[in-house]
Amino acid sequence: MxxxxxxxxxxxxxxxxxxxxxxSLLAEGTAMLEAVLSDLLQIPGIQVRTCVQPGxxxxxxxxxxxxxxxxxxxxxxQPETESEYFCQACQQADLVWVIAPEFDDLLLTRxxxxxxxxACVLGPDPTTIQLxxxxxxxxxxxxxxxxxxxxxxxxxxxxxxxxxxxxLVKHRWGAGGMGLLRFNxxxxxxxxxTGRQAGAADLIWQPWLEGKSLSAAALIQDARCExxxxxxxxxxxxxxxxxxxxxxxxxxxxxxxxxxxxxISQTCxxxxxxxxxxxxxxxxxxxxxxxxxxxxxxxxxxxxYTGYRRLTPDNLAAWVTGxxxxxxxxxxxxxxxxxxxPDGSFxxxx
Length: 350
Hints:
Number of strands: 16
CATH class of the largest domain: Alpha Beta
Order of helices and strands: EHHEHEHEHHHEEEHEEEEEHEEHHEE
Distance between the termini: 44 Å
Helix content: 25-40%
Mean pLDDT: 92
């Protein structure tokens, strides 16, 4: 009997109002969904279901899989229709893979919906998603546990002047760098704050640290944590923050690599509710290149998946879903690096 896997990627599901106003988010979500579906369809003995807005998943491989009834695509253009289908599909699936951003409690809410149907859901439990999605709460937990992280302060309505410049302002429950601002001088801060029309209760500030922006993912199953190769993030700050993909593996000294691996291992030990594919954003400060700090945790699939799958002969989706049970560690071909873009395009580097 075939196992059914339901994959829900919110940004391109037909239920996301940002899809029209933020085409870059739609492209990024589509790239992740296409990569996951392509890998899942290589696994014998499973059927895959998903839900997208019209016009997506038109590549020949998906059309053929639909004809062979290995892939079922529900196309919707109304948020209400999508949420109804989401719950129905969760009830009918053997395994549910929820991919959604953390802002507006989207990942948390949709994971709860899936859990409430009785489905077997990949990823962290709702309590851990709630913690890791809240940058202020996570900072306090990490600081108390002695895990190196960036100094973080919660902005109040009064919004006292940050003690250090340059500094960053972030949404407390943000994802993907949306709304991320950098202030170089107190004057810039004052101009921004006096021009705000809403309160600052949902914002945090952090000092700007010069350093190398890195990311890594881990596959966590049954208290076993396998760290994937560490990658570099490509970020732009002019005229505003923009995530431009990355490079895997990162160019690092062995001692720095070991320090990052230890940092992530300690974090996983601290948060036993982490599960499935989990992303970690790391900063390697220029002043302390052997003392990495944890920036944030992404309790979901990240865009780096599209790069990772190009560096292994193994099927990443089979590992995330548990269909590769009994196999040894993932194999990696790191003789060449891979540069990947948010839209899923990539280039092999010498």
